[in-house]
C-alpha cells in the first residue's frame, strides 16, 4: 500500500476509534440480539491456551471487555500487556480493569511493536488486522516478538455476514457494501501462511434476532464501512428494515471466526 493510502487509513482508524462510543454501539447490539448466547468474546477467549507464567501481548484490546471477570487468567500470566492504537481505548480499558495491578497498558502500533524478539508466548490481535496499513509488516512484527512455539490468535469477520445482508436489503437506495476486506475469514489464511507454519481457521456460528429496529439503525450509523448511508434518512432505513421482519423479528446472518497460528 502506498504512503498516501497508509496515511489515509491511519487517519480513518484514529477518527473511528478515538473514543469507545462507536465500538460500544456495535458491541451492544451483539450482546442484546445474538442467538448464540455464549457470546463471541467468550468464544474467542475459550480458544486461548494460556499456561501459568505465559507472557501475553494483546494488540487492539479495544475497551478491555474481553478481560473483565477473567481474574484467574490474568493472575496466571507472567506478563500481560494490553495495547491499542488508540489512546482513548487504553483509557477505557484501564478504567474497566482498575483492580488488575499486574496489567501493563501501552499505546502500540502493530507495525512497530516496541519489544525485543521472542518476548511473548501468546500474541492476540482480534478484529483489527483489516485496519493495518501495511499488514505484512504488522504480521512480520508479530512473528518477531513471538517466541518459538508461541501462538498467535486473531479473530476477524467473514464476507457473508451483517454488512452484506444489510447492503442487499438497502441496495435499491444506492447503499453499497464498502466493508474493509483487507483481512477476512475468507482471505486471512493467505496472509498468515507466509509467516506461520500452522494456520487453523475456526468458525463461530451465530446470527442476530432483532426485535427493535432502532437498535439496528444505530448500529448501521456507527459503521464507517457504509458511508453511502448519508444519502438516506434514518426513517427510510428503519422502514426498509421493518418490512423484512417475520413475526416481529429480523434475522440477520453473522460471519465471524478466528485463526490460530503457530
Describe this structure in words.
By secondary structure, the protein is an alpha/beta fold. The protein has a single domain (3-161, 180-206, 255-261), classed as Rossmann fold (3-Layer(aba) Sandwich), CATH 3.40.50.150. 35% of the residues lie in helices and 21% in strands. It is built from 10 helices and 9 strands. The chain has helices at residues 3-17, 21-33, 40-46, 71-76, 87-96, 135-145, 162-169, 188-192, 213-221, 234-242, and strands at residues 55-59, 79-84, 103-107, 120-125, 146-157, 199-204, 207-210, 250-253, 256-261. The strands form 2 sheets. It has a 7-stranded mixed β-sheet with strand order 3-2-1-4-5-9-6. Strand 4 (120-125), helix 6 (135-145) and strand 5 (146-157) form a beta-alpha-beta unit. The longest helix is centred in the N-terminal third of the chain and has 15 residues, at 3-17. The radius of gyration is 19 Å and the shape is globular. The two termini are 26 Å apart. The relative contact order is 0.15.
Offer a concise description of the structure.
It contains ten helices and nine strands. The protein has 262 residues and is an alpha/beta fold.
Structural topology:
Blueprint: H1 3-17, H2 21-33, H3 40-46, E1 55-59, H4 71-76, E2 79-84, H5 87-96, E3 103-107, E4 120-125, H6 135-145, E5 146-157, H7 162-169, H8 188-192, E6 199-204, E7 207-210, H9 213-221, H10 234-242, E8 250-253, E9 256-261
Helix pairs in contact: 2-9, 9-10
Amino acid at each position: 500500500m502506498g504512503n498516501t493510502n497508509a496515511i489515509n487509513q491511519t487517519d480513518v482508524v484514529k477518527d473511528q476509534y478515538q473514543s469507545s462510543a462507536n465500538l460500544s454501539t456495535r458491541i451492544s447490539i451483539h450482546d442484546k440480539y445474538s442467538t448464540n448466547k455464549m457470546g463471541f468474546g467468550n468464544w474467542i477467549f475459550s480458544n486461548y491456551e494460556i499456561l501459568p507464567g505465559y507472557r501475553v501481548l494483546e494488540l487492539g484490546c479495544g475497551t478491555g471487555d474481553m478481560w473483565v471477570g477473567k481474574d484467574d487468567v490474568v493472575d496466571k500470566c507472567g506478563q500481560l500487556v494490553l495495547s491499542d492504537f488508540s489512546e482513548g481505548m487504553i483509557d477505557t480499558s484501564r478504567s474497566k480493569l482498575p483492580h488488575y495491578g499486574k496489567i501493563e497498558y501501552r499505546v502500540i502500533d502493530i507495525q512497530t511493536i516496541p519489544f525485543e524478539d521472542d518476548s511473548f508466548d501468546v500474541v492476540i490481535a482480534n478484529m483489527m488486522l483489516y485496519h493495518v496499513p501495511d499488514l505484512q509488516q504488522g504480521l512480520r512484527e508479530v512473528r518477531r516478538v513471538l517466541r518459538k512455539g508461541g501462538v498467535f490468535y486473531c479473530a476477524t469477520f467473514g464476507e457473508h455476514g451483517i454488512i452484506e445482508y444489510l447492503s442487499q436489503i438497502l441496495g435499491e437506495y444506492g447503499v453499497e457494501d464498502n466493508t474493509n476486506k483487507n483481512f477476512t475469514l475468507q482471505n486471512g489464511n493467505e496472509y498468515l501462511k507466509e509467516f506461520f507454519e500452522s494456520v487453523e481457521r475456526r468458525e463461530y456460528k451465530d446470527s442476530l434476532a432483532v426485535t427493535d429496529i432502532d437498535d439496528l439503525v444505530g448500529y448501521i450509523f456507527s459503521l464507517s464501512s457504509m458511508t453511502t448511508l448519508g444519502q438516506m434518512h434514518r426513517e427510510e432505513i428503519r422502514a426498509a428494515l421493518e418490512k423484512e421482519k417475520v413475526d416481529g423479528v429480523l434475522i440477520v446472518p453473522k460471519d465471524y471466526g478466528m485463526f490460530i497460528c503457530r
